[in-house]
């Protein structure tokens, strides 16, 4: 029962998910809409409790065991609790304040202020690290010294040169050549890979729906 | 020079520098920013799911007098299914956690099947087939032929059940050449966008924070 | 004991088939780490993936005859925010210095942040994704990369189950069929000028 019931549910919801795509009948369309919006969103919201429970437990364990760099775990826990309290009780819309005041004099600590001034710069800076990591990755490819890596590097180099004025200065047709690489060989390889990927997705999905692939059930139960 | 007096700009600038310091090496400042980021991100996720999902999609609708009773029952059933995640903490009934997972997983797998066939495989096959219209100009026709050959070569590289010999050997080799050129093109194409992100952060530090540039 | 093995099952949810394929591979990796007593670290960015990954690893440790070695801190949730997750995993990579990093599943722009940091720590890196846009970065920064459908094939191959292995062969036939259709339809369209695109 512990495995059979979930497998039956997967089969039924799987058939529904596939059929809903092809059946234009309004009742099916509505049910599909509910499935995509209400069911998925509400169920996911509940699952977050497990996630937050896990990260808190992970850091509490670090503190208890006095693991390496354990004092930093306090930062995560305190930041999590304070942000959640401010967000949940202070409201998420600036125009609709919650029960908790989010301003002291001119200083606002509303959740959107925290989002804009802490989360956004942190995310943008992490993202921008890629500018450096791309250079080191390119150097790694350069050191590989085999035909495949050389081709990759060469195509990347032409694309980069094609996008800057220097490229036109080197040869007036270089930007057009860069565009050609992107439009022709790049499209061909992407399409070729995509066929296999989509077949893989199709086969794996089918195996899960039919209960052949059961890894997601984890252990335990019968 | 016109340094910002806004405490939030200072906080954002210090956090930006803390993350950049990772490029030198892992250090206490980065460690601080990293742990803070994870904490805030989770706190914000709780806020988001509460205010943007549970309240409007569940509590407001269940509480509203205008909501049909059938919808209310339906919403409560969904919430009960969602609450089954908590059974993970009760060993005797912990298997019930598989029910919400099965619903999400089954639907996602089912929905991905027609999408994979209809939206991806058929669409890509149609785009690859050469017609007389492809030869409206000799160049476009030639490029269409190269794409077709490239697609076949790339597909042949991913034949797992047969040994690479005979015609498959040169074909799959041509496939890896197409793949590597394609990857290089993607790589090069992305570099410029990433550099502009870095420039964006520099503009923040030198402009918004230090006031050195406008 | 030795240095740890880090396994990142991507940043997507269970709704992504790549995540499921990754969790299958995680099961086999966990069996090996259990056998050899290697510490395993599995940070996750989706709460449901965290739950399933935890069960998969637990089962692997039991299957390997080492249920005692499983502890609740092997698999943990970090955050569902993309770059906060990347920052945390970068921190783990540089502090714990795992000997092997597995980056298998669905990745977005954070792929190179993770892969380059891992490469800089000197770890052996095995990546796999069906996210075509991220493959160039894994190819350049990792020692081995499962390209696209190789991820699904590896997931089936590693299980050694005949039905799953049979599916790989079936996929090969499907690819052959697609190739034949593309070539045949092109020849028909060029030779007979028939509206083949409407047939699909």
Task: Name some characteristics of this structure.
heterotrimer, B: 214 residues, mainly alpha, extended, C: alpha/beta, Rossmann fold, 7 helices
3D structure, described in words:
The complex is a heterotrimer of chains A (222), B (214) and C (200). Chain A folds into two domains: 4-130, no CATH class; 134-209, no CATH class. Chain A contains nine helices and two strands; from the N terminus they run H-H-H-E-E-H-H-H-H-H-H. Chain A has helices spanning 4-22, 26-65, 71-90, 111-128, 130-144, 147-162, 165-170, 174-183, 185-209; strands spanning 103-104, 107-108. Chain A has a two-stranded antiparallel ribbon. The model of chain A has no long low-confidence stretch (mean pLDDT 93). Chain B has a domain at 129-214. Chain B has helices at 7-20, 28-63, 69-83, 98-128, 138-157, 168-209. The N and C termini of chain B lie close together (10 Å). With 200 residues, chain C is α/β, with parallel strands linked by helices. Chain C folds into two domains: 5-160, Rossmann fold (3-Layer(aba) Sandwich), CATH 3.40.50; 162-200, no CATH class. Helices cover 56% and strands 14% of the residues of chain C. Chain C is built from seven helices and six strands, in the order βαβαβαβαβαβαα. Chain C has helices spanning 17-36, 47-63, 82-96, 110-120, 135-141, 150-159, 162-192; strands at 5-8, 40-44, 75-77, 100-104, 124-129, 144-147. In chain C, helix 5 (135-141) links the parallel strand 5 and strand 6 (144-147). In chain C, helix 1 (17-36) packs parallel to helix 2, helix 1 crosses helix 6 and helix 3 runs parallel beside helix 4 (110-120). The termini of chain C are far apart. Chains in contact: A-B, A-C, B-C. At the A-B interface, helix 1, helix 2, helix 3, helix 4 and helix 5 of A face helix 1, helix 2, helix 3, helix 4 and helix 5 of B.
């Amino acid at each position: 029962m512990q495995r059979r019931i979930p497998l039956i549910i997967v089969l039924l919801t799987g058939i529904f998910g596939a059929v809903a795509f092809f059946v234009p009948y309004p009742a099916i369309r509505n049910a599909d809409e509910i499935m995509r919006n209400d069911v998925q969103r509400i169920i996911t919201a509940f699952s977050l409790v497990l996630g937050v429970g896990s990260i808190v437990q992970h850091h509490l364990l670090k503190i208890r065991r006095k693991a390496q760099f354990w004092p930093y775990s306090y930062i995560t826990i305190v930041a999590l609790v304070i942000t959640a309290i401010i967000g949940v009780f202070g409201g998420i819309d600036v125009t609709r304040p919650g029960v908790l005041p989010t301003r002291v004099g001119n200083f606002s600590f509303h959740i959107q202020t925290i989002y804009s001034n802490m989360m956004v710069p942190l995310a943008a800076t992490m993202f921008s690290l890629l500018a450096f990591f791309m250079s080191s990755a390119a150097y790694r490819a350069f050191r590989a010294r085999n035909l495949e890596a050389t081709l990759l590097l060469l195509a990347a180099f032409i694309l980069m040169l094609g996008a800057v004025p220097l490229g036109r200065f080197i040869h007036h047709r270089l930007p057009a050549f860069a565009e050609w690489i992107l439009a022709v060989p790049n499209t061909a390889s992407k399409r070729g890979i995509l066929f296999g990927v989509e077949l893989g997705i199709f086969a794996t999905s089918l195996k899960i729906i039919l209960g052949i692939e059961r890894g997601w059930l984890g252990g335990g139960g019968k | 020079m016109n340094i910002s007096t806004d405490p939030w700009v200072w906080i954002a600038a210090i956090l930006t520098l803390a993350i950049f310091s990772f490029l030198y090496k892992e250090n206490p400042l980065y460690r601080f920013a990293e742990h803070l980021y994870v904490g805030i991100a989770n706190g914000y996720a709780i806020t988001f799911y509460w205010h943007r999902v549970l309240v409007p999609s569940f509590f407001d609708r269940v509480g509203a007098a205008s909501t049909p009773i059938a919808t209310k029952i339906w919403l409560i059933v969904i919430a009960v299914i969602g609450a089954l995640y908590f059974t993970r903490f009760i060993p005797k009934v912990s298997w019930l956690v598989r029910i919400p997972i099965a619903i999400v997983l089954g639907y996602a797998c089912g929905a991905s099947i027609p999408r994979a066939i209809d939206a991806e495989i058929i669409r890509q096959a149609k785009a690859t087939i050469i017609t007389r219209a492809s030869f409206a100009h000799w160049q476009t026709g030639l490029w269409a032929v190269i794409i077709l050959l490239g697609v076949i070569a790339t597909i042949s590289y991913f034949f797992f059940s047969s040994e690479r010999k005979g015609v498959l050997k040169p074909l799959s080799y041509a496939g890896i050449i197409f793949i590597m050129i394609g990857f290089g093109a993607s790589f090069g194409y992305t570099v410029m966008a990433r550099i502009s992100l870095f420039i964006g952060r520099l503009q923040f530090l030198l402009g918004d924070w230090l006031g050195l540039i406008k | 004991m030795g240095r740890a093995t880090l396994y990142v099952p991507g940043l997507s949810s269970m709704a992504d088939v790549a995540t499921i394929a990754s969790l299958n591979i995680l099961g086999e990796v966990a069996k090996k780490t259990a056998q050899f007593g290697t510490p395993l670290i599995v940070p996750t960015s989706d709460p449901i993936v965290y739950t399933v990954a935890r069960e998969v690893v637990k089962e692997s440790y039991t299957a390997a005859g080492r249920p005692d070695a499983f502890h609740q801190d092997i698999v943990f949730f970090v955050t569902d925010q993309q770059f906060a997750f990347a920052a945390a995993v970068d921190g783990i990579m540089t502090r714990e210095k795992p000997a092997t990093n597995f980056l298998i599943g669905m990745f977005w722009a954070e792929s190179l942040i993770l892969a380059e940091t891992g490469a800089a720590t000197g770890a052996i890196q095995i990546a796999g994704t069906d996210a075509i846009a991220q493959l160039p970065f894994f190819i350049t920064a990792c020692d081995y990369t499962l390209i696209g459908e190789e991820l699904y094939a590896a997931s089936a191959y590693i299980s050694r189950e005949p039905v799953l292995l049979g599916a790989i062969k079936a996929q090969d036939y499907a690819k052959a069929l697609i190739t034949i259709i593309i070539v045949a339809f092109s020849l028909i369209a060029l030779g007979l000028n028939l509206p083949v695109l409407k047939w699909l």
